[in-house]
Amino acid sequence: MEIPEEEYIYPGTRACSGCGMALIYRIALKALGPNTIITVPASCLTVLHGMQGFCTTKVSVYHTPFATTGASASGILASLEDKELADKITVLAFAGDGGTTDIGIQALSGAAERDTNFIYACYDNEAYMNTGVQRSGSTPIGVQTATTPEGKLVHKKNMPKILEAHGIPYVATANASYPLDLYEKFKKAKDIKGSKYIHILSPCPPGWGYEPKNTIIVGRLANETGFWPLYEVLNGKFELSKPSRRYSDSSKRKPIREYLNAQKRFKSIDTSILTAYQNYVDSLWKEINRRIEDD
Amino acid sequence: MTISENNNNTSKADIMILTGNHAAAHAFRQARVGVVSAYPITPQSPVVEKIAEFVADGSLKARFVMVESEHSAMALLCAASATGSRVGTATSAHGLELMYEMLPWAAGNRLPIVLNLATRSLGAPWSVWTDHQDFVTIRDVGWIQLFCENNQEIYDTNLQAFKIAEDSRSFLPVICAYDGYILSHTAMPVKIEPQDQIDNFLPLLNHHINLGDITTVKGIDPVTTPNVVKREEGTAPGYYEYRYALQKSLEHSISIIQEVHNEFAEKFGRSYGNGLYKTISTDDAETIIFAMGSVASQSRVAIKKLRNDGLKVGLASLKLFRPFPSEDLRKLFKDTRNIVVFDRDIGYGYEGVLSYELKAALYGLKERPNIKGFIIGLGGRDVKTDHIISGVKKAMEEFKEGIFTNKTEFLGLNLDELKDYDESNYFKGG
C-alpha cells in the first residue's frame, strides 16, 4: 500500500515537535482525501488548527464545544443528507481521549447508537494534554498527572470495547508509530456505511515525558510490550492487525517495564503497580487470544 | 387534534383546530425545515412528535434526528445550520438549561436556528407547569426572544422567526416562546396559510458559512485572539470584534423584526401590535399593565373589569424580550403616569425581570412613570383576574403614598395553609 504524497495539512502548524496526534491527523486525512468535512472539539487539535480566519487543513473544519463531537458530526451529516450530498462527502470527527472517553462519551454513544454514517477518530494521548496534563478516563494506572500527583489509582477505560458493544460495523485500534496500518484502517473505514470508530494511541512528548525524537520508539514499545494491541472488528469479526500478530505469543512480548521506563510519567510506580500492569496486559491478551480461537 | 389535513403545495388556506405545540409543528412543516433534532421533555414533546409524523408521512422532507440529550440536539443543529440547512427544534425548562452551553455558540456563530420553547418552571422542586423562568434565564446569550399569546400567533411567529433569523443582515438564532399547557396543550382554531404563499414569503436559506459547499475550505471557530490578527495570508477579527458585531446586529434586528412582521401582516392580514409589543386600551390609560404571555392574556380580562370600576387601565403585552425594545417602550410610556408589571419569573436575588428591565429602559425619561412590580403564577399557580386587579389597586395606593421599593411582592401565595407544615419555619420569609 502506497500513502499518497498529497498533503492536507499545511506546514507550520502549532503542534508540539514530535506530536503523535499531528502524525495521525496527517495520515488520516491522506486516507480520506479532499471530499471530507471534519469536526473537532476543544483539544490539542484545536491548537494545531490555530487561529480563527485561517484554515490549517485543505478541507473544512468545524470546531465544536467539548462534549458535542458526536452530535456535531451527526449535524453535519444530517445537513448533507438534507442537501443530498452525503454520498459524496465523508464526515470525520476527530477528538482527544478526554473529549471521547469522558465529556464526549454521551454524544458519541448516541451517534453510534443511531449508526450515524461517520468516522470517529480518538487520538489517545492518555490525559488532558492541552490544558496542562490532567488525568482523563483514558490515563493508565500509576501515571503522574497534575491531578494525580501520586499516580492514577485505576486502569484506563477500554473505549474500543465500549464502542464495540454498540454493534457498529467497524471498530479499530491504531498507533501513531504504525502509519501504514493507520492509513489502511482509515481507508477501509471510508468505504463502510454506518458508524466507524478508530482509537489511536498518540504518544505525547511533553505529557509522557520523553524526547520528541523518540515518539515512534515509544509508540512501538506500546505495541511490542503488548500494552496497546492493534486490531479491528469488522461487522463483529475480530482480527489482530499485522504489527501486533506476533505478540499473541507472550514470549515474544518485551517486558512491560521497557515501555514504562521510557517515560517520566511512570516514574513513581512501585512493584505493585508494575504487577498490575503485567496482569492488565496478560488479561488483555488472554481475551484477544480467546476471541481469535472463537473465530 | 386536526379536523382536516392539509397538503403541501395547495393554494388554499385552511382553518385547523390545533394545540400550540401542533401550531409550531405545522409552521416547521410549511417552512420546509431541513433538519430537526430533539429530545423529549414535557410540555414540548408533542411539537417534535408531530414533526416526526410529518417526516414519516412524507409531508415534510427533512432529516429528523432524535438525540440523547438537549445539549446534543442544539449542538447537532448548530453543525447542521453551519452546513447550510434550515434547522429548528423545541424544548422546555431543563432542556433549555441543558442546551445552555450551545446557545451562545449558536449566536456567536450567527446560526439562524429557530427554537420553540413551551415554557415551564425550573427545578428544584420539580414542576412541569408554566412560568417564564426558563425563558428569561437565557436573556444574555445573544438570541432574539419572542413571546406568543395564542396558537395563531405561535404559527405566525414561527414563520416570521425563520425569515428574521435567516435575514443576511442579522443571521441570528430566534426563540419562540409560549406558555406550557396553557397554550402548548390547548386547542384553538389556527389559520394555516397556503404552501405556495409561505414559500413566497420565506425564500431558501443562503448562509455565509455553508460547510456543505466543499469547493470553499473553511475553518470555523478555532481559537480567536483578543486582538485583530494581521498576517500575510489575511486578516482575522478578534473575539471583541465578533461580539461587537453580534450586539450591533441584535440592536439592528429590531427594525428587521418589524419589517418582517409588517410584511407578514400585509400578506396574510394578521398583525401583533407593532411586532414588538401589543397595546390594549393604552391611548387614554393613566395606568398601564406590562406583562408577557399568559399573564398578559389574563390582564386583558382584568383591564375590562378595572375600567368598569372607573379606572383608566391599559395593557402592553411584550412580544419581543430580546433585543429589549427600550426606545419604542420609552415612546410608549413617555406620558404614562403609572405602570404595574406582573412577572411570571424572578431575577433571583433582585426582582421580577420584566420589572427591572422596564425600569432600566425608562431611565432618562423627563417625566418618570411610577413603576411597581409583582411576582405572579410561578410553577403554574393560577394567575387570576382578581390577583391582577388587586395588584393594580395596591400599586396605585403605594404610588399615592410615595412608596417605591424593589422588594418583591408575591400575588396568590397561600402561606397560611402551611402553618402546620413540619418545615414551616422555612416558609416564613426573610
What does this structure look like?
- Chain A is α/β, with parallel strands linked by helices and 295 residues long.
- Chain A has a single domain (20-294), classed as Thiamin diphosphate (ThDP)-binding fold, Pyr/PP domains (Rossmann fold, 3-Layer(aba) Sandwich).
- Chain A has helices at 20-32, 44-49, 69-82, 97-102, 105-113, 159-164, 179-190, 205-208, 215-224, 256-261, 271-294; strands at residues 36-41, 60-64, 90-96, 118-124, 170-175, 195-201, 231-234, 237-240.
- Chain A has an eight-stranded mixed β-sheet, sandwiched between helices.
- In chain A, helix 3 packs parallel to helix 5 (105-113).
- The mean pLDDT of chain A is 96.
- Chain B has 430 residues and is an alpha/beta fold.
- Chain B folds into two domains: 1-272, 3-Layer(aba) Sandwich (Rossmann fold); 279-420, Rossmann fold.
- Chain B contains 13 helices and 18 strands.
- Chain B has helices at 20-30, 46-56, 70-82, 93-99, 102-108, 133-137, 151-165, 195-201, 239-268, 293-308, 326-333, 353-361, 385-401, and strands spanning 14-19, 35-38, 63-66, 87-91, 114-119, 144-147, 174-179, 187-192, 219-220, 229-231, 234-236, 277-280, 287-291, 313-318, 320-322, 338-343, 370-376, 410-411.
- In chain B, the strands form four sheets. A seven-stranded mixed β-sheet of chain B has the order 3-2-4-5-7-6-15, sandwiched between helices. In chain B, strands 12-14-13-16-17-18 form a six-stranded mixed β-sheet, sandwiched between helices. In chain B, strands 1-8 form a two-stranded antiparallel sheet.
- Chain B is globular.
- Residues 1-9 of chain B have low confidence and may be disordered.
- Chains A and B meet through helix 2, strand 2, helix 3 and helix 5 of A and helix 3, strand 9 and strand 11 of B.
- Strand 2 (60-64) of chain A pairs parallel with strand 9 (219-220) of chain B.
Quick synopsis:
Chain A is an alpha/beta fold and 295 residues long. Chain A has helices at 20-32, 44-49, 69-82, 97-102, 105-113, 159-164, 179-190, 205-208, 215-224, 256-261, 271-294; strands at 36-41, 60-64, 90-96, 118-124, 170-175, 195-201, 231-234, 237-240. Chain B is an alpha/beta fold and 430 residues long.
